Amino acid sequence: GQDMVSILQLVQNLMHGEEEEETSQSYRIQNLGEQGHMALLGHSLAAYISVLDRERLRKLTTRILSDTTLWLCRLFRYENGSAYYHEDDREGLLKICRLVIHTRYEDYTLEGFNVLYTKQPVIYISSAARTGLGQALCNQLGLPLSCVCRVPCNTMFGSQHQMDVALLDRLIKDDVEFGKLPLLLVANAGTPGAGHTDKLGRLKELCEQYKMWLHVEGVNLATLALGYVSSSVLAATKCDSMTLTLGSWLGLPAVPAVTLYRHEDPSLSLAAGLTSSQPVEKLRALPLWLSLQYLGHDGIVERIKHASQLSQRLLENLKNLDFIKTSVEDELSSPVVVFKFFQEYSNRDQTSHAAQASTIQHPIMSNERHIYDTFNQWLGEQLAQLVPASGVDVVELEDEGTCVRFSPLMTSAVLGTEIQDIDYLVDCLKMKIPVLTSTLQLREEFEQEVRRTVGLLYIEDLAWPGLGVVRYNYHSDEKNDDKQEKELEKINTELLKKLNELESDLTFSLGPEFGGQKNCVYIGMVTEDLDVSELVETIAATGREIEENSRLLENMTEVVRKGIQEAQLQLQKANEERLLEEGLLRQIPVVGSVLNWFSPFQASSKGRTFNLTAGSLESTESMYVSKAQGTGSTPPPTPTSSLAKQRLPGQKAFKRSLRSSDGFSETSSISHCDDLDKLDQRPPNLSPGQEQGPLEMEGAEEQKEVVQAKTDTEDIHSDKSPPDCTKVEDQGSQR
After folding, report:
1. CB of 45 closer than 8 Å to CB of 37
2. CA–CA separation, 684 vs 690, rounded Å?
3. Residue 491's closest CA among 540, 559, 556, 557?
4. For the residues 607-623, what does the mean pLDDT come to?
5. Is the Cβ–Cβ distance between 317 and 422 less than 8 Å?
6. Number of neighbours of residue 164 by Cβ within 10 angstroms
7. How confident is the model over 569-603, as pLDDT tens digits?
8. Contact present, 97 and 184 (Cβ < 8 Å)
9. How far is CA 266 from the centre of its chain?
10. DSSP state of 402
11. What CA–CA distance (Å, rounded) separates 289 from 270?
12. Are strands 181-188 and 121-126 parallel, antiparallel or unpaired?
């Protein structure tokens, strides 16, 4: 065995681990506060209390359980209710299903599944409920999946996230006609996605009509503790059972969820597992018992009220923003705010899109929705990264698509969200909206420019949040696909490297890690001052430059290889000629040495030199005569590209110039006059087609002096003017 110090040290190492994990863990523990430590203390106290004698333990657990249940029923306006405390938030609904089965099937305890076989039970769940709920219930209850009926939401009237009551009525009637037994209905007071509340009043009437059990769950149940409660949520107090997740609402760690229910037969509750005769099981309520006393009624109401105020603050600010569409159930008291980026069309566009919508799923409309989903996914991730204290996340809704969700009742108590965080969130959203609108508007222009440009291939990737995806299309006569694919990858990789070296605000990347296209350049979000034509021209010119350099290297390699082979053949031929000139006797070791001593043979050294510029093989005979290596002809210039237009000082690449038209014409005229002056002062040894490049005029000082001296000499002989004056005039015109 090990001592306690070493065991606790091991636990500490497992808790903290690396430095990054230690930082995040300390951040969470720092936000717990005393109420969090009080909840954690309840678990250790429960373990200590469990070792008391049986009678004292029974009295203590009964007091803790009765107090906690009474406080929760009063706090959430649920009269004459019982409570079941559980770790998994789905476990309460599971126990309720067993209770209803025991209640509706009197012989279930004796005959078991035979009773269910004769009359199959049906559990009705909304299509907006959390995923996997129906399957989890069937797995735990041992029922087939046919026992779960998913009820669609409204399609014509009311909220698109509320259960369709009329359709539910028809489904129940059909099941009754087929000999099935409607057992239980799971309704939502705050759907997991959009936070909408079902029409609980009408659903309760329908359940009473068919003798069904009504269970309600959702985040909006927290508002029952407030002074003002909307009528739709207040109807939940008349349901048969409800599940409360107080841990996330109040920011309490490791506290159990609570299911409140009403039932008159305690024996059936015991058979279903809602109550227990074991005193230790009742100690689950101890962390809540301590936390509720620490917070008090006012503290609990204040936390829930603060979360509602955060959502209202965000909703008021979103109303004043363009291109933002909100989806809330009640603008006066909605604890969940769902919004998305959406750009409205003009009247003409609305008419055309309405005509398209009348047809069956027009492909343009589906692509457009996919693009908006991608942009909203990027927006939600950016906001969550910039303002982590806000707790915003991305949610997928059936009708609205991808949206950004703010649910402070689930996150604000844990993250410590304040009003300042909401204001900062709105400021960040204001900064991102122009980027989204500009990128969305320039995507089509970028696509058209790429399709018009030779050598570039536009890749349509609707899942990429950015300007677009482009590939430099490498044309080769190679029939080997693998070699051509490697060359294409090499060119596009080098192209990406060159683009990232430019001073611009754009982001160039290889795309997402999974699911992206290969050998492409992905361009991220852009601003409205982007010059799309310059960007596409630069990509094409850089790709051509890389391709030409690659081909030049390949050609040079081939020329060198052939030159080496030719040099080997010529040297071999020269050796054979030398053997014929020397004779056979000189090749014998001893005889040859004596013969060379008496009659030396003057052999000429004939080597070979390879001219890379001309690609020809030459003799080294002239080199030995002149004692110097010949320079040969001047090599051809390396192909370069004019990557971008002339920019102003401090202006980054791919930015539209903000100069006025007068200033632009004046600058153009001045530059044109400068070009004429440079043409007049061209050195006499250069022809009109051999002008000096900018690097030669700026970098080679000695060559400038030589050219200047020649110009001065010619001016002296022609005009007979003083050389100093000519030199000054030439320098001024050149400048």
Report:
1. no
2. 11
3. 540
4. 64
5. yes
6. 21
7. 777 777 777 777 666 666 677 767 776 776 776 66
8. yes
9. 52
10. E
11. 23
12. parallel
Residue 200 · residue 187 · CB < 8 Å: yes
> Options 3.30.420.10, 3.40.30.10, 3.90.1150.170, 3.50.50.60; which CATH number does 316-343+365-436 get?
3.90.1150.170
Continuous segment of H or E residues that includes residue 175: helix 165-177
CA–CA distance, 722 with 724 (Å, rounded to integer):
6
Q: Which of 96-110, 240-254, 592-606, 699-713 has the lowest mean pLDDT?
A: 699-713
Query: By C-alpha distance, which of 596, 613, 608, 502 is closest to 556?
Result: 613
Encode pLDDT of 633-669 as tens digits: 554 444 444 444 556 665 677 777 644 334 333 333 3
86 Cβ neighbours under 8 A, 6+ residues apart: 92, 95, 256, 257, 259, 284
The Cα 535–Cα 555 span in angstroms is 30
* Identical topology for domains 86-277 and 443-548: no
- Give CA–CA dist 697/692, Å, rounded: 7
Rounded percentage of the chain residues whose pLDDT exceeds 70? 72
The sign of the CA dihedral 478, 481, 486, 492 is positive
Indicate if the pLDDT at residue 533 is higher than 80. Answer: yes
Which tops the pLDDT comparison, 547 or 167?
167
- In the 3-class helix/strand/coil scheme, how is 253-311 assigned residue by residue? CCCCEEEEECCCCHHHHHHHCCCCCCHHHHHHHHHHHHHHHHHHHHHHHHHHHHHHHHH
Q: What is the pLDDT of residues 292-308, one digit of tens each?
A: 999 999 999 999 999 99
pLDDT at 539 over 70: yes
Mean pLDDT of 332-338: 83
Which residue is it, tokens 């030459």? 618
The least confident of 222-226, 264-268, 609-613 is 609-613
Say if domain 86-277 classifies as CATH 3.40.640.10: yes
The tokens for 290 are: 């301590």
Task: Give the pLDDT score at 334.
Answer: 79
**Of 174, 202, 178, whose CA–CA distance to 120 is shortest?**
178
How far is 534 from 502, CA to CA, in rounded Å? 13
Q: Residue 15: CB partners within 8 Å, gap ≥ 6?
A: 25
End-to-end Cα distance, the chain: 89
Task: Name the packing angle between helices 723-734 and 661-680 (round to 10°).
Answer: 140
Looking at the predicted structure, is the pLDDT value of residue 684 above 50?
Answer: no
**8 A C-beta contact, residue 607 and residue 555:** no
Instruction: Assign a CATH topology to domain 443-548.
Output: Aspartate Aminotransferase, domain 1 (3.90.1150)
Half-sphere exposure in the Cβ direction for 586 (13 Å, CA): 15
Which of 563 and 370 is assigned the larger pLDDT?
Answer: 370
DSSP notation for 667-735: HHHHHHHHHHHHHHT--TTS-TT-PPPHHHHHH-HHHHHHHHHHHHHHHHHHH---HHHHHHHHHHHH-
pLDDT of residue 478: 59
Closest CA to 373 of 387, 394, 391: 394
Rounded Cα–Cα distance for residues 278 and 583 (Å): 118
**243 φ/ψ sector (left φ>0, alpha ψ -120 to 50, else beta):** beta
Question: Tokens representing 567?
Answer: 């040099």
Query: Could you tell me if 685 and 710 are in contact, meaning their C-beta atoms sit under 8 angstroms apart?
Result: yes
Q: How far apart are CA 176 and CA 407, in angstroms?
A: 39
- Nearest partner of 259 among 75, 91, 64, 80, judged by Cα: 91
Distance CA(244)–CA(242), nearest Å, equals: 7
Residue type, 675: D
Both tokens of residue 715? Answer: 């001016």
Higher pLDDT: 101 or 731? It is 101
Distance CA 733, CA 735 (A): 5
Residue spans per domain, the chain:
86-277, 316-343+365-436, 443-548
For 126-135, what is the mean pLDDT?
Answer: 92
pLDDT of residue 473: 82
Place 18 in a pLDDT band, splitting at 50, 70 and 90: low
